[in-house]
Amino acid sequence: MKKLALSLLATVAVASVSHAWGGVGHTYVAKLAVDSLPDSSLKTLFLLNKDWFAAASSHPDRWRNRPDSAEAPRHFLDGERFGFGADLSKIPQDFAAVQKLRDYMKLRSDGMNPWTVRRIYQLLVLAMREKRWDDAMVQAAYLSHYVADAHVPFHATENYDGQLSEPSQKGIHARFESVMLEKSVAYSELKPGTITLQKDPVGAAFAILQASINEVPAILAADKKASAAAGGDTFADAYWSAFTPVAKPIAVKRLEKGGVALASLIASAWQEAGRPTPPAAFRAKNSSLPYAPEFVPRGQTPPPVMPVVTDEQKAAARKGALTFHIESEALGRFVPCTVLLPKDYWQSGNTKRYPVLYLLHGAFGKHTDWLKNAGTAAYLADLPLIVVLPDSQGDSFYLDSPGFGKWQTYFEKELMPEVEGTFRTINKREGRAIAGLSMGGYGSWHLALDNPGKFCAAASLSGVVGWGEGKPIMNFVQKIYPTDTDKRYTTNAVWPKIEKLTAKDGTWRGPVLYFDCGKDDFLIQMNRDMERRLIERGLPFEFAEFDGAHTWPYWDEHLRDVLNFTLRHVAPPTEK
């Protein structure tokens, strides 16, 4: 949903404008998609979860209440800003090529809907291929939202609220997509259609947006005529009597097209994933949706005043924490490590195995940092997850190096086997995730990309995801590699690891990647560059850009996002 600078409207109009199509329209598109799917085990899955899916399809609009500046452009494309008027067919669909017209930051203003559709589609393919059905349903709901948005005519034009019309037709966005829809269109009037399998999600999205922008002149003309008939009162019955007969058929057509397009993409993703059979009677859970409701709730801890944390928070965070030392041959010394176990781990008769999150600290830190500095850590024992807090023994960047020893060898050959041999863990790829902040953000991606068969997900907060290319951390690199600094720095670059795990056909063979960064962080450009490159390659990932800097208040707040991401991707506890 675009940010609209609206003049004062009636309460219903203001409320409606906060969601594309309104919640009603998104519900209609999602339900039409389910009804349009061909008979198969896939359709059975969506029929069983139809109400959940329809409700979840509005979820991305809730993110607009979060200060994620990367989110807004995913909902629209201001077609005329590319210099070809309303002819979107002339806009390059390749993300690298389109940046010759509009650079990455301008695209963040102009809209990125087609490439968002592709990214979510790829996440859906990945979830289906790996049979992570909770996440598959979540990604399908996200896809529903962005595909439905593309079918809204005013999501395809820079005149998105009639604000550029002469005279101004401000407010038409809400009048068409929300108020008129809720007043005049019932789901029973809509018809499902026949799907067409898609091989090019970006091309499909551009075709949708072209059809959408083509409807804009007719809607604006109807609005102008209806407003004149009502003496300028767009809330009068006379306005709606004149506007609805023209606008309603357009809305009905766009909704029906939206349902078919969404069903086509979902079926195509399933086909690309190898048509895996969903579990019988599978039910999606509300807790699978991040942010609301959440595994780790917001608003239940005091406002972050880090690095100070209350004694109560410290006690809660450390409850159930076990600290031990591993005798490491790789490092030639004893290395501390803290493990946090779920509250029910020691319950009598409990034989469950749990997924593991390896949570890495940053430079100048140690294994206890998360417990001392993040109030959010107080929730870790409440999660169905074993959390391991390693110690990097200095600013090692979790690498094997002359400066700090064989830390990567220690992690892979000593720490992981020790943890998984001692505790009831799920010792499979789907049972492991890794995350970290700053230096640990690089470490999490580096270790996961080097071990794609061991980790299903990797998350970075304010991370050095551009390791090997930028210079903001060269003082650290020189300590790690006292000789051949530039050469060794490039050797462990992140991007070549990503390219290595990308098949020739573009299929991603690595873990699901998440990263976020604060807008005032000295590493923000590095993170933006990584998002741009991942979009160019058409790879699945999740990225957010929030207010904040390279500080504990930021990491405390957004550890929640990492935990919610992790729990969507790892396997749940099991008795096996």
UniProtKB/TrEMBL annotation:
Check the record and name the InterPro entries matching this protein. AB_hydrolase_fold (IPR029058), Esterase-like (IPR000801), Mycobacterial_A85_antigen (IPR050583), PLipase_C/P1_nuclease_dom_sf (IPR008947), S1/P1nuclease (IPR003154)
Signal peptide range equals: 1-20
Q: Does the keyword Hydrolase apply?
A: yes
- A Pfam family matched by this chain, by name? Esterase
Q: Name one GO molecular function term.
A: nucleic acid binding
Query: Record keywords: Membrane included?
Result: no
Q: What is this protein called?
A: S-formylglutathione hydrolase FrmB
Supply the alphabetized keyword list: Disulfide bond, Endonuclease, Glycoprotein, Hydrolase, Metal-binding, Nuclease, Signal
UniProt-listed PANTHER family: DIACYLGLYCEROL ACYLTRANSFERASE_MYCOLYLTRANSFERASE AG85A, ENTEROCHELIN ESTERASE-RELATED
One GO BP:
DNA catabolic process
